[in-house]
């Protein structure tokens, strides 16, 4: 069976976000963790290969992206989509520009678009300038990002600095005038030797309107916003069955290693509502009693599981996190906690848990590895950007949802299970 759309995402939770948008607009989607080492479990319209290439050295990011492209082409993908962050996270070295150019060369195409516009999440592009909410990218928190500080909001300039090929703009005037005007503008840019065009868009209507003009481009690049118009290009429309997963079985558990503000609120809310919760003390992980932690937690959880979801968390407020990091070191604390939470997730599956909610991007990566998950079928959305997924674990099938730090409403932990 061949797929329609093959996607390469430069990070894990961004991949899920893209997959979620495609499902909501009519595609059956699977997300793979890294480049698949085997075929797909069943038929899908789109595959999103989740890489962790955003902050790699650009040669390595290109190599991984090309390998993903090769695999997607063997699956018959008719169009390729390179997904990056809607805040255009990159440095003057890349990786958005170099990966885009490498994919264009490999696909032998002379033109593609680039737009991080994602109106549902407040990302809009106007005259080539990226806005985050009401402010320019360079005035948003991204200005101070530790790895990819974004100090220039003009994406034509930002992308040109990363590219050998010429970068241009499809401005709002063409976008508003509709698909034919965008097609005409693409022809005009091609005649000027422009190879990559930033596209303005400030609303979902804009993204739906331009979609037909993108139909024949072998490669598209963008945030997850542009994806909303693509299923329509393949004759697909929103249908409830694309997000239907097999029935959920087994007990329910929440593993939280995120210390983001939203997650702190979600943990507090769950406890306030009387939910069963176990706090991990990170200092114990390096103590003499470390070996007892996992069996103790599983013994605590076992009698509680039949009554509803249990929460096991290391989630803490910024001052507590700083204190732990000062004692253990930031990296060492992070990976010790991630490893413990992942072992707990696998231990809970052994006790009959079949529905798992994980809070935290890095924490999710660790849990998915430990659970032996390499493909996730994307199901119904719980909150924007966070769907339920269905995956084959080491020994049994699981329902999983992976929430990156700041996503989800305060009642997310209980609300999530009611959506299955
Ligand atoms: P988010 O999506 O909110 O950024 P992540 O899971 O990506 O969450 O990152 C949180 C990081 O903080 C992980 O490496 C985790 O192990 C670490 N961590 C979790 N709890 C604590 C804690 N109490 N003290 C120090 N570090 C912690």
Blueprint (SSEs and pairs):
Elements: E1 5-9, H1 12-24, E2 29-33, E3 46-50, H2 58-74, E4 79-83, H3 96-107, E5 112-115, E6 123-126, E7 129-132, E8 135-136, H4 155-162, E9 166-170, H5 172-177, H6 179-191, E10 194-199, H7 204-210, E11 219-222, H8 230-233, E12 251-256, H9 261-272, E13 276-279, H10 290-301, E14 310-313, H11 318-328, H12 330-350, E15 353-359, H13 361-371, E16 375-383, E17 386-392, E18 397-403, H14 412-418
Parallel strand pairs: 1-3, 1-4, 2-3, 4-11, 5-10, 5-11, 9-10, 12-14, 12-15, 13-14, 15-18
Antiparallel strand pairs: 2-16, 6-7, 7-8, 16-17, 17-18
Helix pairs in contact: 2-3, 10-12, 11-12, 12-13
The chain binds adenosine-5'-diphosphate.
Low-confidence stretches: none
Instruction: Give the overall pLDDT as a whole number.
Output: 95
Please tally the helical runs, counting DSSP H or I stretches of 4 or more residues: 14
CATH superfamily of the largest domain: Putative sugar-binding, N-terminal domain
Largest sheet: 15 strands, mixed
Radius of gyration: 22 Å
Please state the overall shape, judged from the principal axes of the Cα atoms: globular
CATH topology-level fold name of the largest domain: Rossmann fold
């Amino acid at each position: 069976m061949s797929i329609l759309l093959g996607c390469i995402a430069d990070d894990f939770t961004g991949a899920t976000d893209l997959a979620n948008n495609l499902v909501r607009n009519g595609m059956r989607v699977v997300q793979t963790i890294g480049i698949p080492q085997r075929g797909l479990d069943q038929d899908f319209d789109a595959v999103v290969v989740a890489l962790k290439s955003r902050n790699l050295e650009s040669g390595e990011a290109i190599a991984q992206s090309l390998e993903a492209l090769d695999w997607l082409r063997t699956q018959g993908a008719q169009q390729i989509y390179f997904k990056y962050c809607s805040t255009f996270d990159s440095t003057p070295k890349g990786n958005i520009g170099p990966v885009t150019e490498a994919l264009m060369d490999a696909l032998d195409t002379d033109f593609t678009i680039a737009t991080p516009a994602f109106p549902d999440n407040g990302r809009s592009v106007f005259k080539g300038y990226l806005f985050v909410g009401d402010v320019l990218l360079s005035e948003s928190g991204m200005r101070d990002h530790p790895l990819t500080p974004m100090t220039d909001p003009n994406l034509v300039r930002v992308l040109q600095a990363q590219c050998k090929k010429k970068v241009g703009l499809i401005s709002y005037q063409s976008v508003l005038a509709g698909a034919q005007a965008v097609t005409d503008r693409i022809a005009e840019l091609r005649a000027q030797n422009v190879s990559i065009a930033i596209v303005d868009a400030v609303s979902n209507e804009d993204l739906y309107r331009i979609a037909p003009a993108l139909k024949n481009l072998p490669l598209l690049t963008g945030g997850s916003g542009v994806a909303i118009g693509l299923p329509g290009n393949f004759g697909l429309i929103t249908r409830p069955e694309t997000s239907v997963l097999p029935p959920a079985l087994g007990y329910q558990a929440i593993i939280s290693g995120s210390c983001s503000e939203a997650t702190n609120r979600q943990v507090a809310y769950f406890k306030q509502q009387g939910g069963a919760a176990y706090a991990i003390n990170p200092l114990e992980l390096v103590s003499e009693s470390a070996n007892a932690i996992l069996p103790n937690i599983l013994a605590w959880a076992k009698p509680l599981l039949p009554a509803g979801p249990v929460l096991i968390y290391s989630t803490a407020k910024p001052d507590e996190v700083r204190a732990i990091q000062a004692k253990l070191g930031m990296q060492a604390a992070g990976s010790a906690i991630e490893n413990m939470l992942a072992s707990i997730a696998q231990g809970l599956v052994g006790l009959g848990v079949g529905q798992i909610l994980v809070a935290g991007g890095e924490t999710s990566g660790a849990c998915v590895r430990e659970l032996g998950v390499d493909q996730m079928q994307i199901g119904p959305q719980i909150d924007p950007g966070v769907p339920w997924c269905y995956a084959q674990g080491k020994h049994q099938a699981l329902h999983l949802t992976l929430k990156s730090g700041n996503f989800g409403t305060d009642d997310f932990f209980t609300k999530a299970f009611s959506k299955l």
